[in-house]
Amino acid sequence: MLGVCYYPEHWPESWWADDARRMRDLGLRTVRIGEFAWSRIEPEPGRIEIDWLRRAVDTLGAAGLEVVLSTPTATPPKWLMDAHPEIAPVDEDGTVRGFGSRRHYTFSSSVFASEAARIAEVVARSLGRHPAVVGWQIDNEYGCHNTALSYGDTDLRAYREWLRRRYQSTEQMNEAWGNAFWSMELRHFNEAALPVRAVTETNPAARLDYWRFSSDQIVAFNRMQADIIRAHSPGRFVTHNFMGLFLDFDHFACGADLDLATWDSYPIGFTERFPFSEEERNAYAMTGHPDMAPFHHDLYRAVGRGRWWVMEQQAGPVNWAPWNPVPRPGQIRLFTWEAIAHGAERVMYFRWRQAPFGQEQMHSGLNLPDNSGLSPGGSEAAEVARELDAIGPLPAPTLAPVALVIDYEASWITRIQPQGATFNYGELAYRWYEAARRLGLDIDIVPPGHDLSAYRLVLAPSLPYVSEVALNAFKKTTAEIVFGPRSGSKTRHFSIPENLPPGPLAELIPFRVVEVASLRPGLTEEVKGRISGQVRRWREHIACEKEFAEAAFADGMPAMIRSGRFSYLAGWAEIDLISAVLVAAAERARVATTSLPASLRLRRRGNLKFAFNYGSEPVELTFPPDAAVLGSSTVPPSGVTIWRED
Amino acid sequence: MLGVCYYPEHWPESWWADDARRMRDLGLRTVRIGEFAWSRIEPEPGRIEIDWLRRAVDTLGAAGLEVVLSTPTATPPKWLMDAHPEIAPVDEDGTVRGFGSRRHYTFSSSVFASEAARIAEVVARSLGRHPAVVGWQIDNEYGCHNTALSYGDTDLRAYREWLRRRYQSTEQMNEAWGNAFWSMELRHFNEAALPVRAVTETNPAARLDYWRFSSDQIVAFNRMQADIIRAHSPGRFVTHNFMGLFLDFDHFACGADLDLATWDSYPIGFTERFPFSEEERNAYAMTGHPDMAPFHHDLYRAVGRGRWWVMEQQAGPVNWAPWNPVPRPGQIRLFTWEAIAHGAERVMYFRWRQAPFGQEQMHSGLNLPDNSGLSPGGSEAAEVARELDAIGPLPAPTLAPVALVIDYEASWITRIQPQGATFNYGELAYRWYEAARRLGLDIDIVPPGHDLSAYRLVLAPSLPYVSEVALNAFKKTTAEIVFGPRSGSKTRHFSIPENLPPGPLAELIPFRVVEVASLRPGLTEEVKGRISGQVRRWREHIACEKEFAEAAFADGMPAMIRSGRFSYLAGWAEIDLISAVLVAAAERARVATTSLPASLRLRRRGNLKFAFNYGSEPVELTFPPDAAVLGSSTVPPSGVTIWRED
Amino acid sequence: MLGVCYYPEHWPESWWADDARRMRDLGLRTVRIGEFAWSRIEPEPGRIEIDWLRRAVDTLGAAGLEVVLSTPTATPPKWLMDAHPEIAPVDEDGTVRGFGSRRHYTFSSSVFASEAARIAEVVARSLGRHPAVVGWQIDNEYGCHNTALSYGDTDLRAYREWLRRRYQSTEQMNEAWGNAFWSMELRHFNEAALPVRAVTETNPAARLDYWRFSSDQIVAFNRMQADIIRAHSPGRFVTHNFMGLFLDFDHFACGADLDLATWDSYPIGFTERFPFSEEERNAYAMTGHPDMAPFHHDLYRAVGRGRWWVMEQQAGPVNWAPWNPVPRPGQIRLFTWEAIAHGAERVMYFRWRQAPFGQEQMHSGLNLPDNSGLSPGGSEAAEVARELDAIGPLPAPTLAPVALVIDYEASWITRIQPQGATFNYGELAYRWYEAARRLGLDIDIVPPGHDLSAYRLVLAPSLPYVSEVALNAFKKTTAEIVFGPRSGSKTRHFSIPENLPPGPLAELIPFRVVEVASLRPGLTEEVKGRISGQVRRWREHIACEKEFAEAAFADGMPAMIRSGRFSYLAGWAEIDLISAVLVAAAERARVATTSLPASLRLRRRGNLKFAFNYGSEPVELTFPPDAAVLGSSTVPPSGVTIWRED
Predict the structure, then answer these.
(1) Number of H helices and number of E strands within chain A?
(2) Is some CB atom of chain C closer than 8 A to the CB atom of B153?
(3) What distance in Å separates the CA atoms of residue C359 and residue B495, rounded to the nearest whole number?
(4) Distance between CA atoms of A346 and C253, rounded to whole angstroms?
(5) pLDDT per residue over A557-614, tens digit each?
(6) Which residues contact A58 (CB under 8 A, 6 or more apart)?
(7) Chain A within 8 Å of C181 (Cβ-Cβ)?
(8) For chain B, how big is the Rg over CA atoms in Å?
(9) Residue in chain A lying closest to C183 (CA)
């Protein structure tokens, strides 16, 4: 179940065979290669040199390794950029983002699209039927380094085409966007402007459409490459390695064209970047926050419709966070087992050997850069390989009892119109996930509109736009459903619904949001009633019949409303309040909860139960002594325990 | 005395008559319309569609409402921007600020000036004699979104012309600016550069002139429209709605061409933006700081030479501050009464109905966006209307005993050359105002040079450049005058005066500022003497005869100097020290002071006395029981009490 | 030993003679002039007006003053910029940095180089043999205002030429830079791009080369002017006035072409800018940090190979720091004596008279701007002049026992690749210097590779790239040597050494750095062993034989390693830990240390010993009563004591 990322172009060819043998000896089965090698595959325009790559695949295959090949489209070479400068993306301020690193292309460039198609076809046609090749990665980390959206002339032209297709007439677009406001009415689609670099805020409806357009383009670019690969590499899977903590385009839509999803797991760096408190960042500096990797595991399981890998697993310190500590001993092993517990088909370490040169020279790998042997993380990988071997086949993952609805548009809408500077959708969803996991719950992440009939409890931390298909899914399940603030607050065209928020959800719970208050960091609102706790950052002023109010703010207005199996939480709840809400809802849904220590997490895979300790003290578990599969009932810091529950 | 802002172009025409009727029923008398409707008035270049606007005026007039019409020049339509891209303003970094929101024009564009004249004439000629039209608003919130200054080629050309007119010869300009410094001498006016985007700081004299040039342009643009309106709409007043917290151009100069001044009052949002402490921001998050609206009321009374309105009164949460809470119950009523207490002729709420679309969809109005009825703020407006009706005609406002000198150039000079990062003129002036108001004083704001003979106490928190006319006004009055730091520290051409600061003020108080110290936030200087307290941020080292020193710093140097009725405070005083200075000066001036609770404010209008409670606890007042006009001697939080003082 | 900076072009010619006489009377001997006077020397292209400057030199010379003349190349006039816009530098974001202040040229511009050569020759030829002229300053503060690096088309062309010369072939450059990474391989030198404005981080090897290229250009520009001056002004020294706190180009390389080095000493402003704690900034707001001036004195003594001046000595408040306090009484005198104690040949005050106009009008001088007499700083300068006169000739400076290795490339490397956001080379070196000075040690700063045989203790706070010549210098001396973190961690081409860090230093101490951890501000690591203390910000995971570990982290890994006279400290030590390391090393080196109060510093010059009190309390010294040369054994705040040690 383990693998690694490898860059044959970084090392003398004479090392390859030995590297391959050592990979096998370590217990690795799969190797990803080729995703940044365009300048080696095509050193001059049109001069293709694919033999070295074939020899690399041959060598790996000969050692018994499966190969995942990549298209190298994330790094167009300099000669291509010089020939077509319009390929370069443009940032929000209008600055061209040029050659020198990676992802220096805009998805709007038709020149680049055809060049990408050409090089993808070259690689797929050349090696697509090689017996060692089992699958494909398209490009690398779409959107990384803020590249999902680009704001240049090329983009504007593509956007106008997209608008023309979407709206047919400017009258419809003016109406949908509310362009009567501030004289924004347009007469022709070629009058449409980029929604940036204006004097102040541009129309939120236009901005949302620009985001949708940008997301659609990534999906189309990905599908284009997937089609080429499938044509030339039958029987192999096609995937993409998504980047964590990243909501800039619709991963579900992109995943629909893939055979499985993969993601790149750097929990420690992500913990530095996520808006945690300083206390949390300090506590988890060397382990990552306990829900960071799991949240993404559960997300990409959804994106891959059940099938997913970790394509890049942090194997030691990284180079890109503001601070980059050495992971605590045991933590690389923990990360690996945790991915497996959540159902990963493969955990691929990044990377085989630390590169002594280039931008990532401070990024560790399984081997030290001096080729003297395994890094500390490499030794932990070897340990997992041995443990996996000892344990044998694992049971298949099963559905969780709880579904958490994640919506990419929710992130776009609330970033376009935060209304309160500290309203952050990604953080809100994460905190709900964390609260549920601290209650010992397994979670499936689902997109809005996904069939919810298999779940007992559904959480929608915030779903501003509730489409008809999403509404129907909520109606059709018998699950207990908890909605968070701003759910139903916007129409498809970024307007306030005619019946006020929660718009279509009023069909499920009869109330209206009359006013909303965003609260500066110094302000807190107390909630009391059947549940109690604190609200910060955001609260809503709600009009409803008294009978539906489960809890109220200090001024008597409803804070939590419930009608049958539908609840609505009218504010940004602190974790204790979320927890109280979830406990009550889980009880109604007859889902058992248990209050875990803050740094411990559980996860079930079939009849196996896993415990992971992110804290600095050992934790005691209770299970029959003979049930232990790995470890014992005492879970040390960074420790893993697995036991059988029958 | 109440009115509202209305956007007929946002609603079906079939709603208009009902809206008008409901406005009347609510007690509103005046309606402002049209200020962003260019794309509806001229949907294609040259195709004028004014009939809908006439029907709107007809409908409002038929309901008995007075109409304030606006010129729509704040939102030139896209077709105009595409035809003349040079209309767009350019920011300090050189980025063009394009179409997509509002105020996307530079005052330097002669093309835009003639287009603005054309559309203003169209509207004024078409509706200027309509019987329902009582007045005009020109454009909307000049300078808002940082648009008073623009830095493009168009601006540079206009600036060079302005310089040529001002200086006649480059020799005079070189001399005035001190261009011998750093080889900045110019040979021709067309060598003059924009004072931005240089390697480091540009010449402060040039920067001050650029600011004056920019302010002059706004004044000229405003006067041009005023002339057109007056030609076509005889007998109607002409005004502009100024934006609060805004010192980027000279409002007094602009006001000289208006019949009355109006301003847009959003005290809660402004409180979030003003450099208050976090404690103050938390305490007044839902009420606004107690001096925020009053300061502006008193300022715009001066700008309108006695005549002023609130053109936009916050009626609930807004959308543009970092955090936007719901105002505390009663606060919209309080704001309205407070404006009236300070002498407003009209208080116009913004806006009739919350728009469900566009950039301001989260900005509340008197009605909810679903048209289901009044918002909470709407209900408070109705309450004020009833109260006004019950009370009947109010006495005319009278002059205050205290004048506070506000100077726009003082703001420009100290921003161009702060010398200490925390020296902020707007904040300083506000803190002096606050200190005086916490002593129960009514205040008239005046520009430098204004006749001061009617006042007993004059405060000049800082007046770096003291013109001859300003000096004469100080000399001619018999009032007690207190000057704050940096007064008299600059000449007209941004030099240090030949006799050192306080320059011409040395004629009034004999001293010299030898050195100045800006103090980092960690540093405090104690002041002791006839008055005492603390200085932070700024202190001056002063040479003077001992007899003039009223108080000294710890090192013995003078902190407060006085010669007869002229005092000078040689530092940035904390509020307790300002208060001590004011109490002493008021005593000498025989103006009574009273120390109010921190969150209570008083204001007289004729023989009526008003109390406003911004705090969270009730406040007890003492007055004869039968003197009460509104409320009682207990003022609840967000409460208003009015009583008669004979 | 004292002098002053003077701007005859700022004052009426009728004042010059009186100014000169007053300078002499004050005790000044030397005057610098002319460094910004291009527009006066050449008011129109080609029209040279040098007579006024000759008369100024005549006047100063007639008063018995020595003149240092300057080339005015830091301020090209507007007519030159208009004729050749490509002279302007370009910032990292691509914005042209235009006319309006100073240093508005890029060193890459060949047009500017020839114009600079032309004007330098004009001045040198005209006045180079004037008997009053004793030396020359070239240009002014290279690199100030972030002008060492420029990123425009002109720069790109020059950079490509530099690369061509350095690498001969793109194959060698691709190999050196590791361009196989991310498809960065180039086919021609004219494909090389500026290492900025890419999507994310560019290649660190390319960035380091861009920095070297930029530094080389400054060195070449300086040498070009030095050659011209020497040709026309025989027997006069040539210098440049370097700016403090500035590591953007190699001052040692530039100093090699000068006869002596000078620097501009503004310790109070620098203290505001340096990354001190808020506590330190508050404590030393009015004195500057006790090591700020001394560190630079010792640095520029090295740059001038023993000969150095303070070219601009702060004489009162400055105008350019965020806050600019008035120096504490006595502090200007202290600064002057401290420079002398460290061996300055001249201390030149900036400036004779405060200018009432221009960008620096808030920058004090020896005289007030109103010409009424000396400023407080001016009076202190007069006091030093009298004291110097009374004391008579001072002994020659001698070598210190301790050498501190400062490397400009170390700063570039760690800024290009901080790996931890708080790793700041300049700060690290300063903290080591501070720790040594607080132990009473005199320090010589030296560049890597400098002959170390005369020293007993050598400190290298961090030396990432250890060249062969640097390694040999370490090997050849018998001194005790302490290396700090990251030493030996990079090759010349910014790669990890083949044998892992410390690369070539492993020859001196046998260990390997296996992993490195950067620590967020909340994290601390305890060090215990023969020395103990705390590490923050950075720690390394080291593999070595147990015998070499002098101290360990809590997890048992080595924190301090020693092999004979070579030690290595594996983290960013807090000052107590640095101190413990230094005490132990000094003891082995038989260098005496003494623990000074935090705000006191000592310095020897020949047989004289100086004490400087930066604290707010008097400090008692112990020395024989008859040894006192200046002051007494009680050193008051801002006081200086000198005594004889025989």
Answers:
(1) 18, 26
(2) no
(3) 10
(4) 54
(5) 999 999 999 999 999 999 999 999 999 999 999 999 999 999 999 999 999 999 999 9
(6) A130, A132
(7) yes
(8) 25
(9) A39
Instruction: Please calculate the CA angle C211-C212-C215 and round it to the nearest 5 degrees.
Output: 85
- The predicted pLDDT at position C371 comes to 81
Interface pTM, i.e. ipTM: 0.97
pLDDT in tens, B238-290: 999 999 878 999 999 999 999 999 999 999 999 999 999 999 999 999 999 99
Cα radius of gyration rounded to whole Å, chain C: 25
Q: What angle do CA A227, A231, A237 make, to 5 degrees?
A: 70
To the query of whether residue A515 is one of the catalytic residues in this protein, the response is no
Q: Which residues from chain C sit within 8 angstroms of residue A10, using beta carbons?
A: 178, 180-181
State yes or no: is B280 an active-site residue.
no
Contacts C360 to B, Cβ<8 Å? 181
Spatial distance between the Cα atoms of A340 and C146, rounded to a whole number of angstroms? 51
Q: What is the average pLDDT score of chain C?
A: 98
Query: For residue range B284-301, what is the model confidence (pLDDT) as tens digits?
Result: 999 999 999 999 999 999
Q: Do B496 and C79 touch (CB under 8 A)?
A: no
> Is there a contact between A361 and C496 if contact means CB atoms under 8 Å apart?
yes
B575 to each of A339, B87, B341, B525, B536, how far by Cα in Å? Answer: 60, 45, 25, 14, 11
Residue C165, Cβ density class (10 Å: 0-12 exposed, 13-18 middle, ≥19 buried): exposed
Give the model confidence (pLDDT) of B34-93 as tens digits.
999 999 999 999 999 999 999 999 999 999 999 999 999 999 999 999 999 999 999 999
Chain C contact partners (≥3 CB pairs within 8 A) = A, B
Q: If DSSP codes are grouped into helix, strand and coil, which group holds residue B27? A: coil
* CB of A35 less than 8 A from some CB of C: no
Q: For the purposes of burial, counting CB atoms within 10 Å of the CB of A279, is it exposed (0-12), middle (13-18) or buried (19 or more)?
A: exposed
For residue B500 the two structure tokens come to 């050192």
Residues of chain C numbered 381-420 and touching chain A (CB < 8 Å)? 417, 419-420
In chain B, which residues have their Cβ closer than 8 Å to the Cβ of A201?
A: 101, 320, 359
Instruction: Please indicate if any CB of chain C lies within 8 Å of the CB of B510.
Output: no
Cα separation, C303 vs C287, in Å, equals 26
User: Taking the alpha carbons of C276, C278, C281, C283 in that order, is the dihedral positive or negative?
Assistant: negative
C616 touches chain B (CB under 8 A): no
Entry pTM = 0.97
Q: For chain C, give the percent of residues with pLDDT over 70.
A: 100
Q: What is the DSSP letter of A198?
A: B
Distance CA(A530)–CA(A548), nearest Å, equals 12
In order, the DSSP letters of B557-606 are -EEEEEETTEEEE-EEE-HHHHHHHHHHHHHHHT-------TTEEEEEET
Query: Domains of chain A (ranges plus CATH)?
Result: 2-147+218-391 (3.20.20.80), 154-205 (no CATH), 402-589 (3.40.50.880), 604-644 (2.60.40.1180)
Write the CB contacts of C51 (distance below 8 Å, at least 6 apart in sequence).
none
